[in-house]
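Changelog-adjacent note: as of this version, every example in the card shows the full chain rather than a window. The one below runs 64 residues end to end.
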Amino acid sequence: MGAGRRIRHFSLWITDDADRVPVLIVAKTDFGDVKMEIVGYKPGSGALRGEVAGSAVAGSSHGR
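Full-length structure tokens:
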């Protein structure tokens, strides 16, 4: 890390299913605080990773 550069911290919340969808990110920056949050969801027409891969997805409990 170069001189004058500070470590930046942020938090990321994800769902606890096989798809690991990011639902909230918060961070403090030099310009102010940042908050990105999912406020709505409309599923697509394709299958989600957990539905396709089953237990092959890391942390998945499908197929166990």
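Structural remarks: The CA atoms of residues 11 and 26 lie 5 Å apart.
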